[in-house]
Amino acid sequence: MSDYPESVLKIIRALKMLPEIGPKMAQRISFEILNWKKEDFEKFIKDIVDGYTKTKKCKICNNFSEKEICSICEDPTREKEKLCIVEDVQGIKSIERTKVFKGRYHVIDSVIKPLEGKGVDQIGIEKIIERIKKDKIKEIIIALNPRSEREITSIYIKDERKKVFPEIKITKLARGIPLGTEIEYADELTLKEAIEGRKEI
Amino acid sequence: MSDYPESVLKIIRALKMLPEIGPKMAQRISFEILNWKKEDFEKFIKDIVDGYTKTKKCKICNNFSEKEICSICEDPTREKEKLCIVEDVQGIKSIERTKVFKGRYHVIDSVIKPLEGKGVDQIGIEKIIERIKKDKIKEIIIALNPRSEREITSIYIKDERKKVFPEIKITKLARGIPLGTEIEYADELTLKEAIEGRKEI
């Protein structure tokens, strides 16, 4: 036996598609799956397929939702004129936990990653501009993770889009989140202070 | 938003079924999957389902195989009278890599785990006894991982099954594999020496 049968290699290859899972771990997980009872395996696959199929992206803000519009966007009690721009859905959850922010969110389509060929045109800026107009946004809070914050900020300025809406206050989270830490990992108190102490940029 | 939509929680719960994946990691992997393009997701699911469905356990030795009988069991050049008992399929691969052993294998059904209610009756000893008779086995090499070796050995002796076949030499891998190390992680040279220096027990 030079190697595992092709069917086993197929599962290992598939699991290596998942983030954070290296070859050794993919192999160990595969063997565990191959030893599962048929009903457990079927439940596993059904739950993943169901979850993937039923989860949509909110048409307004890109948040995960089972409906066209997410629960935050359809909540009439949220302040429409404050828009918090986050990098991903975890960012929404982290900020929601602080209970400080009562505005709405916008998940950008992609962070600027020049090395991966993702430029200014990929963050979905048009959708944000459209919301600014439609919802008469008065304040934009940029709550991107520190590593991407600088890039996006400079784009905001360089792009001179600010000139189009000079009346809008643009803030970013205050110092409080340790440099290099993702919002997801900041404790609630730090994040709360960062939101309250946000500064105009 | 108190939490993620049910569909997202469903994927997270499913991923937590996998070994070595904790709640935080299950969440991060879920988000990555939810951002996959439809064709990538479909390929992922298809490969896992295909792999699970096509992988059988060899009717003779429990090795993974796409056919009823695995490539080692159906290879006429392998010495039929030497049987190496391993804990899992990785054990076969590790020993095959040393190119020292030319006999055949038997993957036990389960290691004895009294705390999990897995007793002597779960290792599949009847199937091994049957092979001993049928293949006229002359030597059994016990190559279980060190942590389970002692238990199984004592069972072999206590169970007095040895009395049934007093003519069979039973060996275990020689010292060489560091205590507490799984066979899978032993380097090839150490494992090779452990096989060559096997001792009768």
The protein's oligomeric status is: homodimer
Number of strands of chain A: 7
Radius of gyration of chain A, CA atoms, in whole angstroms: 21 Å
Query: What is the CATH third-level topology name of the largest domain in chain A?
Result: Dna Topoisomerase Vi A Subunit, Chain: A, domain 2
Please tell me the CATH architecture of the largest domain in chain A by its name. 3-Layer(aba) Sandwich
Beta strand % of chain A: 5-15%
State the distance separating the first and last CA atoms of chain A. 64 Å
Estimate the global geometry of chain A from the Cα principal axes: elongated
CATH class of the largest domain in chain A: Alpha Beta
Structural class label of chain A:
alpha/beta
Number of domains of chain A: 2
What ranges of chain A have pLDDT less than 50 throughout 5 or more consecutive residues? none
